[in-house]
Each structure stands twice: as C-alpha cells, then as structure tokens.
Design brief:
313 residues; alpha/beta; 14 strands; 31% helix; globular
C-alpha cells in the first residue's frame, strides 16, 4: 500500500527512524551519511527515489550544526535525484529558541533555519512541539506541528491523576500547561521567573496553590535543567508532596544530568525525539516514552493526503 514511500534518516536519531519504519511496515532507505576527513558532511543515496514520496527523519539535536547540515544535504540530494515530494521530518527543531529579536542587532535564527530547509528543497515540514507556534509562519511550505501530549497523558493518567497540579515554568508555557491540566483533570499553577542570561533562570514567585499536591512541571524541553531544578526546589519549599517534570525534548546538555540526579525531582518524563546518552538512559529518574506511533501515523496520513490535525481531536 505504501509502495511509493521512501523513508531515510541522518545520524541524529536512527533508533526513532527505525521505529517509524517498523510501525509503517517499510524498510529504511539506503543512504550513507558520513564525513570527509576534514569534517565535511558526505551523503550518498543508494537507491532510486525518482517520483517517490520521500521522508527524511532528522532531529536537529546536538551536535546541532552537524545534524542540520546532514538534513540540508540529504534534502538537496533527494531534490537532485528527482524525488516527487520531500518532507523534512524534524521531531526536534533546533534553534527554535531564537525565534525573535530579544536585543538590538540580534538574529532570528529560527527563521534562517526555516529558509535553509526550504531553499534546500523541502516541500513540507513535520515537527513536534515547536518551542514557539509562530515558527510555522517562518515557512512558505506546509508545516505540521505535532504534539506529544497524547503519549504523555496516557502515562500520566496511570500515576498522576489524583491530587495533581500542572505547573508552567514560565508565562509562555501557560497555554500548554492549561490544556495539559484540563485533559488530566488537574489544576494549574505558574512560576514567575526572571532569566538573568542564556541558560540561567531564577525562580521569583509561585502563582497558585501547590501545598500538599503532586506537582508536574511541564515544558517543551529540558536543556541544562536549571529552570526545572529551581522550580522543583521552590515547589517543595511551598509544601508540595512530590515534584515530577514532563517534557517533549530532552536536550540535557552541560550539567543537566548532575542537576536532575541531585535535585528534588522524583521523575523526569521525556520522549525519544532526541536520543539519550548512555548515562541518561541509566539514570533512574528519567523515564522515556516513544512518539514513534504519532510520527508514523502522521507520515502515513501525509502520504495518503489525509487530515493530520484530526490526530489530536
């Protein structure tokens, strides 16, 4: 039934790409993505893609510039090989935090990346939990922004449904936390924080009642974990029974693992949009859920020109 579909992957997240292929019952496309001795990315597509519906699965996760170049070069290779349609499947969209000017002479790098992907030849983007919804407007091609909420909610309902408060770590995530809490039957709280610099945050105030409650701090990503660790500490000081963290993208850079392991956090629930290091996989506090089911169903619907948005109704 999927005879004209071809799914390829760069080196960013081969495990997730293989799960998507298994769910769809198709084999992974044959491609070599390596480097020359000087570090230049080298791509060879080893099968015919002429007239095919091609999906390239590649999170632009660390090392971000390497994975981004792999994606761009693979798109260009498919375009020059006469693929009928090229969809960039980018579960984690790197540079998404640089989506606006926050200071004079600052770049809007999320827009630059959108231009690069489009210029390379992608005709559609499929991503998950974009850091800012307006990034969809940076593209002049169709964008499907999926949500990991169904996967996260299924897990939460088993362990966190009673006496629970969903907490947004900043005002920008209130809408996401409110929608999540509504589906979980939980109340809402907000952390008012002041960011002193990149990857630095200071918890200032808690808006809402968290005393005697089970807390779920909800965010789209955990990078250095400074925000969630400080938030968890503030929650415990305010009388919370226990604090867990829930996010889609486990970037976990720098001191993130040390901070989580030594923090008040009971459990960090994440998805596999970004592959974890061996140390993170062995961390008892980290629980990984797979979003391969949602991504594979979205790929199938795009191939058949079915509705993607109905996945979340």
């Amino acid at each position: 039934m999927l005879e004209r579909i071809r799914i390829f992957s760069g080196n960013a997240n081969l495990a997730l790409a293989k799960k998507i292929c298994d769910n769809l019952g198709v084999s992974m496309g044959k491609a070599n993505v390596t480097t020359f001795s000087d570090g230049e990315t080298r791509v060879e597509i080893n099968e015919n893609v002429r007239g095919m519906d091609v999906f390239i699965i590649q999170s632009t996760c660390p090392p971000v510039n390497v994975t981004l170049m792999e994606l761009l070069i693979m798109i260009d290779a498919m375009k020059r090989a006469s693929a009928d349609r090229i969809t960039a499947v980018v579960p984690y969209y790197g540079y998404a935090r640089q989506d606006r000017k926050v200071a004079p002479r600052a770049p809007i790098t999320a827009k630059l990346v959108a231009d690069l992907i489009t210029t390379a030849g992608a005709q559609r983007l499929l991503s998950m939990d974009l850091h800012a919804g307006q990034i969809q407007g940076f593209f002049n091609i169709p964008v499907d922004n999926l949500f990991a909420t169904p996967v996260l909610i299924d897990y939460m309902k088993k362990y966190y449904q009673d006496n629970t408060v969903v907490v947004s770590p900043d005002t920008g995530g209130v809408e996401r936390a409110r929608a999540f809490g509504k589906r979980l039957g939980a109340s809402l709280a907000i952390i008012d924080k002041r960011r002193e610099g990149p990857n630095e945050a200071e918890v200032m105030n808690i808006i809402g009642n968290v005393e005697g409650k089970k807390i779920i701090i909800l965010d789209d990503m955990i990078d250095t974990a400074g925000t969630v660790v400080q938030a968890a500490k503030a929650m415990k000081e305010a009388g919370a029974l226990e604090v867990s963290v829930c996010c889609t993208h486990p970037v976990l850079s720098g001191p993130a693992l040390d901070r989580i392991e030594n923090s008040e956090i009971k459990e960090a629930i994440v998805t596999d949009t970004i592959p974890l290091s061996d140390r993170a996989k062995n961390c008892e506090k980290i629980k990984v859920l797979s979003v391969s089911g949602i991504l594979s169903e979205a790929v199938r619907r795009i191939y058949y020109d079915d509705s993607v948005s109905s996945l979340f109704i």
